[in-house]
Amino acid sequence: MQPGSLIREGEVFFRQWLRSPKSMGSVFPSSRSLARAIAGQVAWQPGTYVVELGGGTGAITQGLIERGIPRENIIVIELETHLFEYLRDRFPGTRVIQGDATRLDEILAHHDIGEVSTVISGLPVVGMPFEFQQAIVRQAMSAMKDKGFMLQYSYSPVSAIPAAKLGVKSKLAKFVLWNFPPAHVWKYHR
Ligand SMILES: C[S@@+](CC[C@H](N)C(=O)[O-])C[C@H]1O[C@@H](n2cnc3c(N)ncnc32)[C@H](O)[C@@H]1O
Fold first, then answer.
1. Domain locations in the chain as residue ranges
2. Structure pTM?
3. Rounded to the nearest whole angstrom, what is the distance from the C-alpha of residue 190 to the centroid of ligand 1?
């Protein structure tokens, strides 16, 4: 990415944070190191989709594309209109959908999206009500076959999602120092 585009990305992200800090959860977009770490964990096979919840300005989406996942197999769901429009313009060929990740079942059915191999969540789940976390994990698990898993990154050293309470297994997959703040990537599966 050109330096000018990086500045623009940071500006779009920061402006949205000023509008709705709670749903942004962070002042800065994820770093390239975090994007690479996440993309490296994704289990993509031809014919399947990778679903990203909370695309923001596309830091993780870019990492998925650089990892070689075809654009048409990447589904990005973003709630906020400004970010949705930014993502749609930034990633032609990728399916960017404006919607609420807590309605994932409906969104996938409506857009006729078939087998999902990995769900990535950049949603700010820390401190969110249990019902929110439950809606995300339950629908992410039901979108995937047995071997599928969900990746969630957060700045907390402990799992941001109460895995046992939600009946899923959790594992710390990566710690990424080169992010602000440093981030943990957690893996959840059945
Ligand atoms: C911490 S930011 C992550 C952005 C980007 N993925 C990154 O890593 O730089 C969280 C994103 O989740 C989006 N978001 C929050 N709640 C959402 C929801 N219920 N459905 C979809 N997106 C949501 C926010 O608008 C924001 O873009």
1. 30-189
2. 0.96
3. 24
